Amino acid sequence: MNYRHIFHAGNFADVFKHAVLARILVHLAEKPQAFRVIDTHAGSGLYDLSGAQANRTGEWRDGIGRLIDAALADDVRALLAPYLDALAALNPAMSSAPADDVRPARSKIRRYPGSPLLALALMRRQDRLTACELEPHAAAALTRHLGHDKRAKAIAIDGWQALNAYVPPVERRGVVLIDPPFEDADEFDKLAARLGAAHRKWSTGTYVVWYPIKGSEPVAFIRRLRQAALPKLLRAEMHIAAAQSDKFTGSGLVIVNPPWRLQDELKILLPGLLCALQYERSGRSVIEQTGDKI
Predict the structure, then answer these.
(1) Span 5-289: which CATH code?
(2) How far is 178 from 40, CA to CA, in rounded Å?
(3) Which residue among the candidates 14, 62, 127, 179 is catalytic per the annotation?
(4) Residues ≥6 apart with Cβ < 8 Å to 135
C-alpha cells in the first residue's frame, strides 16, 4: 500500500498509534534520567486538518474528530489525557471557547501533531528527539515545525539508514518509532530484519513498530519476530472491520521492551478507543505478550 500521511492525519490509525506512544513517553518520563526519541519516518510533524489534502479523504473526522466529542469513561480519559492535552496545546480554540459554545469540539481542531511534535510535548528539558525524513517537502516542513527547539534535530535521511546510523544513542533509555509508508512489497521483511539488527545494537531501548492490517500480511511478520527471539514483545492491534485482502481494516503496533504497566493500560485503552470511534460493533482489539499464540 501507499500510505501518504498527509491524507490520513488524525484518522483511527493515528489516534491508536499516538495514544499508545504518549503512554510510553509518560512512563519514560517517570525516571529522572534523560531519554532519547528516534523517529525514523517522521513526516512533516504537523498537519493542517482544514487543508485540501486532509479534507480530500476526511478521515480525521472519523478518528480524532470522533474521539474528542466522545463521552469517555474516566479510566479511558485518564489514559488519553497526555495525548489530548498535546492536541489541545496546538488548538487553543478547544479550551478557550465560551461556556455557551455548543459547537462540537471537532469544529475547533485545525492542527494535528505528528509523532515528532507529540514527543516534544511530552519530553522534558533533558530529553532529546532525532526526527528523520527523506522526502524533500516533508523534510523541509519538519525542520520548520520543530523550530528552534534545542531538544530536537531534524535530519534529511532515509528512515532505514537512520535506524542503523542513530542506534544506539548516547542515552541508555528511549524509544524508537518505526512507521514506514509501506510503499514497497518487501516492507514487512525489511521491518523484521532491521528491527532485529537495531535491537542487537541497543537492547535497552523501547521499539514501537506501526503496521497496516490489510488481509493476512502481518501474520507472517509477527511470526518472524517471534522466531527472532526478541524479548519482552507486545503486540497490539485495533481492527475496525473484518480483514479483507484489498482494504485497510486496521493497524497494529509491535512494541519491544514495553513499559511494564503498558499491557494492562492497553486492555482499558483499546476497547475504549473502539467505543469512542464507534467501531465497537464491527471491530475488535488484540493484545498479546511474548509466548502467546497468534
Answers:
(1) 3.40.50.150
(2) 5
(3) 179
(4) none
